[in-house]
Specification:
Elements (H helix, E strand, L loop, with lengths): L13 E3 L3 H23 L5 H23 L13 H12 L11 H23 L16 H34 L6 H6 L1 E3 L14 H19 L7 H6 L1
Antiparallel strand pairs: 1-2
Helix pairs in contact: 1-2, 2-4, 2-7, 4-5
Length: 242
């Protein structure tokens, strides 16, 4: 069923699809993933810049998890977790060249988002516990044995290639939509707006209050600081100013 739009979501024949939290998360994550590779390949032996880049990614992931419960309608996990019949129905339409339109994530796009979040969470966690046994140590590597810390480093290395593979697939899918299906998915992630059309499901306003946004940002920062300090609050100043 297609819902009724509100005046707030209607702007020159367009609808608000993505809130500022989702868009900033997306593009910062792209930049940080590239920088993660750069700092790993050409960073210092202690991986200082690579670790801080990882902490920034950790912050983004914690924020996105919180935003999945407190954000706008299209950001909420409950609104883009689809049942298998919905996924198959969308896939059939895609193969036929007439995919069903969604204001937020379509069923296959939602699967990619969830996969990327799982891969990135695994990458961050493995990095926190990793150690090369010589120079580079994750902030939580002291909580596990040396062998487990080295295993985490191996998982972290393999995880990079899985994320790279998923990213290539993601970019390829976007190219398919842009050049074959004539559906530009990049522009809405920049502007937040989509052209009004018959979207599947109930269309809801996709903006969230700045208060909730600020709360999620602040809580995310506190959680990440607690993690990288080894869950020792007294060590937070040392982490920040070391």
């Amino acid at each position: 069923m297609v819902g009724v739009t509100t005046k707030k979501t209607q702007e020159g024949g367009r609808l608000k699809a993505w809130d500022i939290g989702v868009r900033v998360f997306h593009w910062l994550l792209v930049c940080l993933l590239v920088n993660a590779w750069v700092t790993a390949e050409w960073g210092d032996m202690e991986m200082r810049w690579h670790k801080w880049n990882g902490y920034a990614i950790c912050f983004l992931l914690v924020f996105r998890l919180l935003w999945g419960f407190f954000g706008s309608s299209t950001a909420l996990f409950i609104n883009f977790i689809y049942a298998p019949p919905q996924i198959l129905n969308y896939a059939r339409g895609l193969i036929a060249g007439k995919p069903i339109k969604y204001l937020g994530h379509n069923p296959l796009g939602a699967l990619m988002v969830l996969l990327m979040l799982l891969l990135l969470l695994s990458q961050v966690v493995s990095g926190l516990f990793s150690s090369d046994g010589l120079f580079a140590y994750g902030p939580l590597s002291g909580y596990v044995s040396d062998s487990m810390s080295e295993d985490s480093a191996l998982v972290h290395e393999i995880g990079f290639y899985l994320i790279l593979l998923a990213s290539i697939f993601h970019v390829g899918a976007i190219a398919l939509y842009v050049f074959v299906l004539r559906d530009n998915l990049v522009k809405p992630m920049l502007t937040g707006m989509k052209i009004r059309q018959n979207f599947s499901g109930e269309i809801k306003e996709s903006s969230a209050s700045m208060g909730r946004l600020g709360f999620c940002v602040l809580l995310s920062a506190c959680i990440v600081l607690l993690i990288i300090s080894g869950f020792d609050v007294s060590q937070i100043p040392n982490v920040l100013f070391d």
